[in-house]
Amino acid sequence: MFCRVFSAAAESDQSELEQLLMSHMVTVVQIVEKTDPLTNTTKLQRQRTWFGSLSAYSIGYKYANQTLFTFLPLILLLVFNTLLVRQVTFNIQARLQIQMLNDT
Question: Binning pLDDT at 50, 70 and 90, where does residue 10 land?
Fold first, then answer.
């Protein structure tokens, strides 16, 4: 099978800045055009790059994604809600003390 890789940076209508950004960008999956010489058919397939096939990437991405989008917001919500409830209860107690002082 013949194989040709499509590269977004090779397109002529992109600006120099876009080409520079694309050349320094780490890709995980690339689109590959595979041609079968016997049947003369062409198919597009996704193929992992060397970076996407690293086990460290797949494990690290899963844990970083889970941490950033699940555990970190949960912890922040717990902390800020706890601080808010503490402040509200403190203000209620202070208001009650002021009312008791005004009543006497």
Answer: very low
The tokens for 73 are: 């917001």
Report the distance separating Cα 35 and Cα 1, nearest Å.
6
- The whole-angstrom separation of Cα 23 and Cα 17 is 10
Count Cβ atoms below 10 Å from residue 48 Cβ, excluding itself: 14
Classify residue 72 by its DSSP letter.
H
Q: Which two tokens stand for residue 45?
A: 């397939």
The dihedrals phi and psi of 48, each to the nearest 5 degrees, come to -70, 145
Q: What is the pLDDT of residues 72-99, one digit of tens each?
A: 999 999 999 999 999 999 999 999 999 9
**pLDDT of 38 higher than 80:** yes
How is residue 87 written in tokens?
Answer: 């402040």
